[in-house]
Amino acid sequence: MVKISLVIPVHNEEKNIPIVYKEIKEVLEELYQTRGYTYEIIFINDGSDDNTLKVLKDLKSVDPFLRILNMDRNRGQAAGLTAGFYHAKGDIIVTMDGDGQNDPKYIKYLIKKLEEGYKVVTGYRVKRKEPFFTRVLPSRVANWLISLVTGLKVRDNGCSLKAYLSFIPKKVQLPHGFHRFIPAIFGVKNEEVCEIPVVDRPRLYGKTHYNLKRTFEVIRELLTIPFILKNPVKFEKIFKYFFILIFATFLGSLPFIYLFKLSFLEKVAIETLLLVFSAFSYIVWKNLKRFNQAQIKGVFKVEEIF
User: Fold this and answer.
1) Which residues, 6+ apart, have CB-to-CB distance to 136 below 8 Å?
2) Superfamily the domain 3-222 falls into
């Protein structure tokens, strides 16, 4: 029998979890009864400081299909997802948020597309129930940039409702922020990915963990993605030496640039260009180093609550 692992990272979602759990339990039971899929529900408690862990333990006490991975501290969504991917025992891994915005009824449609031969199925949100200028517009800009850089034509990388053949997401340890580039970072091709529309719902309780600052983080990490998709170890070394060379040239040029017969604007332009190139190479180098270290050391520490 094919097994589904439903992976849900949560942080301070004590009021949302019982409602979300009830919905997903109904959907997974229906899949079991009608199509023979067995399942496990994996909640990753990402350093919550409210009653999230207690709520999860209460649910665990009455449901043997529920597993709790308790993070040692708040490490972020990327680490939570990575922990869930690593510990999942299913043939299919499905991910979703724990705040109620993702409707679990779409899980069966994700599974159906996997049955048709796709390796990854991702939702794209329609009728989003969020502020346009602070959430929707930055999301559209970020998705356009991600698609442009990676070549993977996915409309909504930020939608957490996704399904994978289990070997796909187990390939990579995701450092902070890099979950925004799923599924491109897993190395899948356009013909292996399918998208389905999902109606976005408003958050049930609590405050969103996202803000406008995330758009700038996307741009920062996006600079690194092309080199991760090619050869992150090789390019870490290249950008390290490139940064040292350009920055040394910038510092060394300051006393001498004024010896040349250049206009003030030309001198400023040369210095600015050198500084921009050194900043770019530094950002890419540090991000590549962070990514490579994550593959060696891992990004999560959890204990499973039995």
Assistant:
1) 128, 130
2) Spore Coat Polysaccharide Biosynthesis Protein SpsA; Chain A (3.90.550.10)
Mean pLDDT by 10 residues, the chain (306 residues): 96 96 98 97 97 97 97 96 98 96 96 97 84 70 85 90 97 93 94 95 74 69 93 97 90 67 76 90 96 97 88
Q: Is 303 exposed, middle or buried (0-12, 13-18, 19+ CB in 10 A)?
A: exposed
* Pair of tokens at residue 306: 């039995």
Phi, then psi, of 270 in degrees rounded to 5:
-65, -45
**What residue has token string 């510092």?**
251
